[in-house]
């Protein structure tokens, strides 16, 4: 048996799936918030038990490479590199925005997936069919919705993590040009990541595991400080080695 | 038992293969140079570097050890304390590797790693190791008092037995290594500050300037911020007078730090009647610190070689081995920026 394991922890939403080239055998998508590190591996093990596939049957691994939360992206990419190193599986990275847009290819609409980038900004890219080929037609963009909308001149289907505020902002900015996929179909699902990864691996040669980089788009913020890297100072009780008071 | 161990809690990517918790088969350390330009560690930059180097360094650690993944019995990684974004890279890589290879995963407390660095020795197979395998050094005797001092930690720990730790005291502000770095910068010396200050202090008079002690009375805690401020004031007033005897200031400052660390360590050793005193962390390479602690205690003092004092994978492999052998504090499922020893 040959199968691909797909991992995505690009944002607060995470997803894991197994696909065998013809069918998605199992998939789980959940709101992990910031608990990716705690929940990713239990989910992988659960997914494998649902498919009744031993880990040894996984000979391919696909991982979402962003853009998204820097820390979130690294959770799945590090895990995927470890899985590939441990099993000898082939590893492939797929942009998280590609995964979001992919199920809407048949709509023939220009599609714009959105993911939160913090500080009220979003990651975006534009996808469209041209000469019967569906592909990304813009670079990865990061910015406020008003900037992203400057690049939208035609009817566009918005998918991804769009909350009520973002939806009303887009309607205000674009009026009838803004179209919205239904909630269930705008979600990001690892089944699609698995399909894309499978197809990609069929077309190109395997690269070194360490060459797989997240799509950061943004430079690291230089404001970070290492003055207090670890815990805040302990309370007097702790520092004196006294037993903990129950309070 | 062979453990593949991974350390990514700060700015060193370390991967090692350790046998039976003591013998180093390989120990590869990738030091991130990106931080020298910024004069400090930016966590996001460090995490990006870890992700770039974790797989190539793991590959090298296995090749240096001359073994295949099939000959590994367990995979370990640091899960805290440390920079969360950095810890996540090593811990998730290690868990993925363990799951795919059908091996157990062991989460390790970084501070336990510094403690267990005292159990390591370089096997003949290790490329950077000297000594024949039959030269197995004796294990440190327990109970012990352990002082872990580096740019990130200043902790005084009582080790009652394997994996039975009690935190006696720690710094309430800066770590000792940070204080060395800051004062070195003040005196126009290089980075890292510890070895630079030690070198400058050699020709200096340690009693030239009275500086406040870096401790809190009646407790085992340290405080380096008052000493740092006093040194800053001293340097400024000397500069106004147009003279800055760098050697004397360095020696006086070093003496204040060393006295505090040595005094508390020796007092803890006496109070708890321990059979040895162990050091760990980058600052334990400081010669006067070792000498002063040794002078004040009557039990053996153990200090790992410099390469094992700073962060590395081998110490995580040692700690992981003893955590399989001895029950102790449970490790979290994820990673933690702050993780107590007990
Ligand atoms: Zn350390």
The structure class of chain A reads: alpha/beta
Helix content of chain A: 25-40%
Count every helix of chain B, treating DSSP H or I runs of 4 or more residues as helices. 11
Which ligands does the model contain, each kind named once?
zinc ion
Quick overview of this protein structure:
The complex is a heterodimer of chains A (247) and B (342). Helices cover 31% and strands 26% of the residues of chain A. With 247 residues, chain A is an alpha/beta fold.
Structure, explained:
The complex is a heterodimer of chains A (247) and B (342). With 247 residues, chain A is α/β, with parallel strands linked by helices. Chain A contains 8 helices and 12 strands. In chain A, the strands form 3 sheets. In chain A, strands 3-2-1-4-5 form a 5-stranded mixed beta sheet, with helices on both faces. In chain A, strands 10-7-6-11-12 form a 5-stranded mixed beta sheet. In chain A, a hairpin with a 4-residue loop joins strand 1 and strand 2. The radius of gyration of chain A is 20 Å and the shape is globular. Chain A starts with a strand and ends in an 8-residue tail after the last helix. With 342 residues, chain B is an alpha/beta fold. Chain B has 11 helices and 11 strands. Chain B has a 6-stranded mixed beta sheet, with helices on both faces. In chain B, helix 4 packs across helix 11 (313-325), helix 6 crosses helix 8 (246-271) and helix 8 (246-271) packs parallel to helix 9 (287-296). The model of chain B has no long low-confidence stretch (mean pLDDT 91). The chains are: A alpha/beta (247), B alpha/beta (342). The interface between A and B is large, with 50 and 62 residues. Residues 110, 114, 150, 152-153, 281, 311 of chain B line the site of zinc ion.
